[in-house]
From TrEMBL:
Residues 1-19 form the signal peptide. This is Secreted protein. It comes from the Bacteria. Keywords: Signal.
Amino acid sequence: MNKIHFLIFLLGCFTASFSQDVNEAQQFWNSLQNLCGKSFEGTLELPVDDEQFGGKRLVMHVRYCSDSIIKIPFFVGDDRSRTWVLTYKDNRIILKHDHRHEDGSEDKITQYGGSTTNTGQQGIQVFPADEETKKMIPAASTNVWWITVDDTTFTYNLRRLGTPRVFKVVMDITKPVENPEAPWGWEDN
């Protein structure tokens, strides 16, 4: 093998390994993009006896998608106050929680969340609480959220490290359901 072919080979190996590392966040993002416009019903797996979420119909609607933002309203029964907002920037993903009142105004506790610290994996992204969250909700400073997605399920998870607080919702993405009405604070156009 001559020097030029060897250099091309090395460049190809480097590019493949670099793009593979960077691609996992993008692959995760693409999986979410494939769900855009669809809604899915799910179940609360943990905690099993939660008063706020237990026994209520849980629906997520992947309502808005762009190259850098995905908004997923999460409905708990008739409560349309929650939207998970994911932002893709510099091969990282940011998760924020947009909470609204019925009149559309922002809740006092909103826009909390965290950012991935690396490119994660194709099927899972992990979001430790950010500094803004720590200032807004001191007890949530040890929160770690993670989202998984594969061919059959989407899960939204929360663990507050150092406490028994754990939360897990599992959505069946093999069976889309009818899209719900607009979440609070959205124009339904």
